[in-house]
Design brief:
There is one protein chain. This protein has about 575 residues and is an alpha/beta fold. The protein has three domains: about 150 residues, no CATH class; about 70 residues, no CATH class; about 325 residues, Alpha/Beta hydrolase fold, catalytic domain (Rossmann fold). It contains 21 helices and 17 strands. Strands 15-14-13-12-7-6-4-5-2-1-17 form an eleven-stranded mixed sheet, sandwiched between helices. The chain has a two-stranded antiparallel ribbon with strand order 3-16. Helix 1 crosses helix 2. About 40% of the residues are buried.
Length: about 575
């Protein structure tokens, strides 16, 4: 620590003043950002931190900055090894400052470590800031992270040594390339995450052989061609999320869940949601149920002649499918023998960071603007989901594409992530209010859908529930609550990784792991503590479970479609190719 007669003591005083000014400016920023997110949000009342806590935090900040300053001054001086050993480490998984250029220069070494200290200080400020409830605190944490991610020195030319080195080595060509990349992305209206020219839906994505055998205003129904001489008697109907395009389940042959399901001897049908335009902007939740899974299940039963089918829903597709099955139960219909839900919410008591962006204020805004008609655009949805992982899905590409002039690599998953879809406004507004805000779906009889009161407890078929351990969209502990909501026997399986990678984990690659435990009567953490970890993909476990509900085998059907349902066009169909 500097002494009063230290020539650098004025710098320490500046650090103290900086900490005070930073705190004031930070809270001013947080206040100005209320309601600015695409999904809205009511203002948060931020109180004044307790003086003793604030003073202690500022003193710690001053001490840490002093140690860092002295470490920089001592760097390379004989006998100063102890002082020079002080270093501020990035959080695990933060790769922004991992390049050697950040440490080779004392200036940039100090810049990035000082940023990390500042970020730590501001995060701790949020923790001591008085707010009305836990949700408000979590919203402050979210806004603080958005701010800190945006002001990182890696995002700016003058403070990014990688940019400077590359510009010198290329004699400025990297700067020119970066400007050209920026102009092209302005024309696209989004940040490029992958080489868009490397992929085309129907050419090297969504290539599993099949045909569209039914369509209405909202969906096309695809039937896939069998790959063997015999198949399970009961067909499998897949309902993917309408928020994204279905081909996340059919990327390329080596990582296609659809192809795997066909290879396992299933007659697979899949709902391809339309990328809705203004003329579909009137459609609501009931329309999505009736024209989505209810139409699909009816048509599949007619084509195959089977009274019952097996059904699978992914993310919000699983929520829609489960709601449709509750409608069928209320109508006295029994069309489904088994239900698979992948990373799906039925009880919305804890929805992670997405839930922080949805409150009465934002729902009222949506009700007023698009609740009676209009669109929640794909661009808005994409920006929302990207903000949840801003360093990975925004600032990483700002630095790479625009500062370094690099072209992103070809990656099928990121191509799909950029292929955004619109939602009909009444559907989106109803979904956010009744499920995310009010959490009404899991309460028997509270919601009316398609003219009947629904009760998920009457959805009594056996169910296979997959969650992902690092899922930031569907927290696995909340997905586990579906074992309490549905009426049938549950097999809960926890996969490794996140919302997408946890699902798209091909069995052939034998990567990652999953956890199983037949006893789902305990709470989520107790279930995990008693679970058994198995190496490889959950796909194999699911396939073995599904075979129990196949109702035997039958010869594979020679033709796709049947009866009045003719082949309309080859898979993947035209709906999935429509751009937002």
């Amino acid at each position: 620590m500097s002494q009063p007669n230290d020539p650098f003591n004025p710098a320490m005083q500046q650090f103290a003043q900086l900490g005070q000014a930073m705190a004031q400016q930070f809270f001013t920023f947080l206040g100005s950002q209320q309601g600015q997110h695409p999904l809205g949000g009511a203002p948060i009342q931020i109180g004044t931190p307790e003086p003793a806590k604030l003073t202690a935090l500022q003193q710690e900040f001053l001490q840490q900055q002093t140690l860092l300053w002295n470490a920089m001054l001592a760097r390379g001086k004989p006998g100063s090894e102890a002082a020079a050993s002080f270093a501020v480490q990035a959080e695990p998984g933060d790769r922004r400052f991992s390049a050697p250029e950040w440490k080779q220069s004392p200036i940039f070494d100090y810049i990035h470590q000082s940023y990390l200290l500042n970020a730590r200080y501001l995060k701790e400020l949020v923790e001591i800031a008085p707010v009305e409830d836990d949700k408000a605190k979590n919203r402050l944490r979210f806004l603080a992270r958005q701010y800190l991610d945006a002001v990182a020195p890696s995002n700016f030319a003058a403070t990014n040594p990688e940019f400077i080195k590359l510009a010198v080595e290329t004699k400025g060509q990297s700067i020119t390339d970066g400007i050209n990349n920026l102009i092209k992305d302005f024309e696209k209206g989004r940040i490029s995450m992958t080489d868009d020219t490397a992929f085309e839906v129907g050419r090297n994505l969504a290539t599993t052989e099949g045909a569209v055998v039914y369509e209405n205003e909202l969906i096309q129904l695809i039937q896939y061609a069998p790959l063997g001489k015999t198949v399970a008697k009961r067909p499998l109907v897949i309902v993917p999320p309408c928020i994204n395009k279905f081909y996340i389940l059919d990327l390329q042959a080596e990582n296609s869940f659809v192809r795997y399901a066909v290879e396992q001897g299933n007659t697979v049908f899949l709902v391809s949601w339309r990328n809705v335009k203004a003329e579909q902007g009137r459609l609501g939740w009931n329309d999505y149920l009736e024209m989505g899974p209810l139409d699909a299940l009816r048509v599949v039963r007619e084509i195959t002649g089977e009274d019952k089918v097996n059904a699978l829903g992914f993310c919000v597709g699983g929520t829609i499918l489960s709601s449709a099955l509750a409608v069928l139960a209320a109508r006295g219909e029994d069309w489904v023998a088994s239900l698979t839900l992948l990373t799906t919410l039925l009880d919305f008591s804890d929805t992670g960071e997405i839930g922080l962006l949805i409150d009465e204020h934002s729902c009222a805004m949506r009700d007023a603007t698009i609740g009676k008609g209009g669109l929640l655009t794909g661009r808005e949805l994409s920006s929302t989901f990207s903000a949840l992982r801003a360093n990975d899905l925004i600032w990483n590409y700002v630095a790479g594409n625009y500062l370094k002039g690099q072209k992103p690599q070809a990656f099928d998953l990121l191509y799909w992530n950029s292929d955004s879809t619109n939602l009909a406004g009444p559907f989106a507004a109803w979904y956010m209010r009744n499920l995310y805000l009010d959490n009404s779906l899991h309460i028997p009889g509270k919601l009316e859908m398609c003219g009947v009161k629904v009760d998920l407890g009457k959805v009594k078929m056996p169910n296979y529930l997959l969650a992902a351990r690092e899922d930031h969209i569907v927290p696995w502990q909340t997905a586990y609550l579906s074992t309490r909501v549905l009426g049938g026997d549950s097999r809960f399986v926890l996969g490794a990784s996140g919302h997408i990678a946890g699902v798209i984990n091909p069995a052939s690659k034998n990567k990652r792991s999953y956890w199983v435990n037949d006893d789902s009567k305990s709470d989520a953490e107790a279930w995990l503590a008693a679970s058994e970890e198995k190496k490889g993909s959950w796909w194999s476990d699911w396939s073995a479970w599904l075979k129990q509900h196949a109702d035997g085998d039958c010869p594979a059907r020679a033709k796709l479609g049947g009866g009045r349902y003719k082949q309309i066009e080859p898979a993947p169909g035209r709906y999935v190719k429509e751009k937002a």
